Predict the 3D structure of the following.
Amino acid sequence: MQVKIQMIIEQQNETITKEIICLNRLHLAPETLGLTLKESKLITSKIQENMVGPQIEEYIVSQRPCPCCGEVRPIKGYHSLKYRTLFGKILIQSPRLYECNCHSALPHQKSNY
């Protein structure tokens, strides 16, 4: 028997199907019944990994427009972040955004701190 687990992500009028794992069971035996602990950990970590990427992309798209004028801010570069989850560590490429031109026109206020 062969069991394939897939994940379907629907995002902004786009559907993406990702294969999570393919399990092969040749002979039925007590030790091959259901999932092993190793397989279940692998499945959950792959689901988490495939879910975080599109969530981050969606968040970055929502943060690029300037909150004041709505103009899309360019990206300076990226830096890596290690995000620790219940199901393992995920490496994230976090963009650094330029400040919008409308902010440079505003007078700077001194902080009381």
Notes: The longest helix spans residues 37-63. The longest strand covers residues 14-24.
